[in-house]
């Protein structure tokens, strides 16, 4: 079931550089506080750049043994299995990047819901030893879904995820012959997609199998039965009588011998040819419809796939660094703007109100996390549960590379 409205999320959908400009335009800072804000932003960016540079190398080292796209040679490195360190670190990075994990129950509900595309998709979850699905950015959308050759479209509301990260690890004994995507046993895959309806999450899995809906079976089966009945009564009558007589004579049910001459042979061959042509036509109709479904799935995924494997790691690391910086600099600006110490709850309300009223976006700002970051950077301090800003001790003379 689709929720009535999109959930309120943590993600701030503005570029880091733009946020600094947006805060400057907000005003409310005197000259000294404005200088402190700029120095504080520089300190925040340098600190998280250095931190995530170290995390980046750590993630690369953990992922290297199972990277299916690696073009380097491994030296004395285990190549089987995924270390627990990789999964835990990946989840931490995704959380810091404001990605939300899709629970197993929510994923199962998405599998059971009707797809927006004319497809019935099935995913065998038993193929996977581990599945992680994270989303970021959710908007409520509505589209017209065509019914009955597009003559009676109906509006469908759905939740659309702007980013979806999929982590998969196959079992060592997975049936490769019956698994799509050329996935080897024990393989580890990372995929990043964009603009994915919540009802179509199953299309992202490499072992997705396409099936026909009941309406598609009827569209093929009913015309086939009608045309088959017409052919049987009009074009195969003579052939069926002849074949029945031959079978009856051979089984001893009919004592009258059937004479096979040139005329009866031609009639028999013509009937068999007609029957063969009919069967081939129905098979071609089924195959072409299945091919059309496969093309629809492939075409849809082509425009949704953003990155694979190690490329996904680099993207989410950059997302996490951006999110940490954005949350910190916004909280620091509003702390500098406050004329007196302020509680975390009041500051949270100010920031969320600013985003909604000034920039038209509702979000759930992580104020506690942002304030803790500022405190660790010596840019904020807390006394009696009231927070106040601290000026950077000195201007950054150089940025490390």
Overview features:
401 residues, alpha+beta, 3 domains, three-stranded antiparallel beta sheet, 10 strands, 49% helix, 17% strand, elongated
How far apart are the first and last residues' alpha carbons, in Å? 49 Å
| Largest beta-sheet characterization | 5 strands, antiparallel
Helix coverage percent: 40-55%
Summarize model confidence as the mean pLDDT: 78
- Overall structural domain count: 3
Strand content range? 15-25%
Query: Which residues form runs of ≥5 with pLDDT under 50?
Result: 396-401
SSE order in H/E notation? HHHEHEEEEEHHHEHEHHEE
Q: What count of helical segments does DSSP give? A: 10
Number of strands: 10
Structural class: alpha+beta
Tell me the strand order in the biggest sheet. Answer: 1-3-4-5-7
Tell me, what's the shape? elongated
Radius of gyration: 32 Å
Describe this structure in words.
- This protein has helices at 16-26, 31-63, 84-96, 104-112, 214-234, 237-250, 262-304, 310-337, 344-359, 367-376, and strands at 100-101, 120-122, 128-145, 154-170, 188-197, 209-211, 305-308, 342-343, 380-383, 386-389.
- It is α+β, with helices and mostly antiparallel strands and 401 residues long.
- The chain has three domains: 27-90 and 309-401, no CATH class; 98-211, no CATH class; 214-293.
- It has a five-stranded antiparallel beta sheet. A three-stranded antiparallel beta sheet has the order 8-10-9.
- The longest helix is centred in the C-terminal third of the chain and has 43 residues, at 262-304.
